[in-house]
Input
Amino acid sequence: MSRLLFQGIAGVADKSEQIKATAKPLDPGPFVAEGDTLHEECGVVAIHGHPDAARQAYLGLYALQHRGQESAGIATADGQHLANIKGMGLVSEIFTDDVLAKLPGQMAIGHTRYSTTGDSALLNAQPIRVDSTKGLIAIAHNGNLVNLGNLRARLERDGAYFQTTSDSEIIVQLIAHSRAGTLVDAIADSLGQVEGAFSIVMMTRDRIFAARDPRGFRPLSMGRIKNPDGPDTIVFASETCAFDLLRAEHERDVLPGELVMVTEDGVTSRQYATGAAQSSCVFEHVYFARPDSRIFGRWVQESRDQMGRQLARESGVPADVVVPVPDSGVTAALGYAEQAGIPFRMGLIRNHYVGRTFIEPEQRVRDFGVRLKLNPVHNLLEGKRVILIDDSIIRGTTSRKIVRMVRGAGAKEVHLRISCPPTISPCFYGVDTPSKRDLIAANKSIEEIRQYIEADSLAYLSLEGLLKSCDGGQGTGFCSACYTGNYPTQWVDVEDILPAAETVGI
Ligand code: SF4
Output
């Protein structure tokens, strides 16, 4: 049973109540039991100047559902009041017509979440609404702060009372404790104190704010819905695919270190931080973002196509068919097949409804493993030399099962090609990766991994090949720390970056 948390109308403290909903449980996913996949981060949207802002936010979140399926929330404001409803489950399950009707106003922010920091609970679902000395503020945050401990301790010494364990609330508490005279100055002051990855949208009773961290780790774009009879609707979203559903035009990206404010008087902007080298997450192009989104100035589809082509140039092998591991391996496989002149075939079929109907205790899900989600097309694989394209190997257990599955369907040879370099280090910027001791590429050579996953050959895309694929050689500053171990910020968790040998004292 999904749960909803309703924070409604303006008052001194949040009045929260549990509302029962009829939504189904969360999709456990076939890989969850094995912990062998990287989880999406979060998606955020903001709407300013629309008579049904809640529904617009709903549509935006619907398009961003791939960025987090654990919980979702929408907060709205009508100039006087600020309401907030959030729940566990998918966007479409939580926000029925009845629920949307409880969210009046011309402004809205929304969030869909996979938990990265803070407990995986309704309390930490977003938007978070805090009644501060600067008035009511709602915030929705994509990313992960890395200087959490210090900031939280300092704020608590200063008398801050935290309502959640989420790092996003730290930003609001910093705003509340800022000595700056105006709200926009307080926000700029606070954002300048936090280190890490954040693309955030915020709302007061009468204003919307959008900002990105100084290094621009996570994407955030601004769009506009033209209104011939009045002011345009201004929208913000983690990915531009949300604009298509809203019929909004993509105007521009929010810049790294930029704070944008939208009021009745229009859009104003300030650069609250300058000088940091851009470190946009290259893994957004590899895996997270939808291919129909344009992020960091480039279509994701184009990047993945180029990754596949480059992979074919770097590590081609004679074969009969190129088969993607669906869904995320599809675009790279198309590029690979075209570059190599080898037929592309959907030799693995993904069941998109796993977990929505197949609700089993964890142990029984574990027994089904990968077979629950993927099934081979025997007549496409039988007797064939297969090049399998996937976007990452994390622990290696899932890759081994897929290789076995393809071979079990009659493939003569299975050559695994990965459309990014080996993942050797965890992410501290909003992507839920295991610690180094659990990353197979941090602890084994490529040949050892090949033997473990039982492939005839294994190759990864080079780092140079990946970076060039993602910006066409434009020199975009990317973070690639999970492939290099070179982190753009100073704050990392030392425990998490120790390799397996050191943790067991070898
Ligand atoms: S460490 Fe990897 S996943 Fe994390 S922000 Fe950098 S590139 Fe992205």
Residues 300-315 form the longest helix (16 residues). The chain is about 25% helix and 25% strand.
